């Protein structure tokens, strides 16, 4: 009986293996191309590692890539920290508190999801210049921190996963509202927080447009902007750029590897309104 069940599962496992290969193949080829000489990339598809990894790596490091890496870490880390606090507290307020204009305000927040962020970018640039904050990392951190999707998702998750009885019991025991939130609510909504954390980090890490219009000093560049600076003497080194792209995806791969389980939990639980 067990063998029959195993035979029925073999096609499923084969399909999963094929899908995994299809998902990992582009990343593998990107790493492989980063180990070849730049001109060799035009001779055909490369499936095996080349001999120019060290040379390409040295080319990347000569362009202050570690500085740009650090800038991206600072921007993404601060952006995620602020975005999590805003999304969680605002979502909690909309899910568990009653106040005048609640439905209207939430409808406005949801409506902003349909507005392209580029529409507000011009006004944001002018505002930051008026405040004297252009050519700093501050505009990159703040832009999009009050994330409408984060507020919407936390409101849905808290509304479906946090019973009102837990909040009332905390109030009866004399716990203040912030104490209830941080001591009782946070442990329950951890999967949703990790989901928002991953999405905010991914958006901030890959953000190209905002640094492009806000930053003109090379020492403040983030990874997406710095890729265009990577070149060898007298030529554009595409292999080194591809290697830099591979290095830039490392934090994303690490975070998604450790947080994928919570990401799935957050997406599944937050999509069901109890």
TrEMBL record:
GO terms for cellular component: plasma membrane. PROSITE patterns: ABC_TM1. InterPro entries: MetI-like, MetI-like_sf. The keyword Ligase does not apply. Keywords: Cell membrane, Membrane, Transmembrane, Transmembrane helix, Transport. GO terms for biological process: transmembrane transport. SUPFAM superfamilies: MetI-like. Residues 69-264 form the ABC transmembrane type-1 domain. The chain crosses the membrane at residues 12-31, 68-92, 104-125, 137-154, 180-205, 238-258. Its main location: membrane. The keyword Transmembrane helix applies. It is a multi-pass membrane protein. It is found in: Cell membrane. Gene3D superfamilies: MetI-like. Belongs to the binding-protein-dependent transport system permease family. This is Lactose transport system permease protein LacG. It comes from Eisenbergiella tayi. The gene is lacG_12.
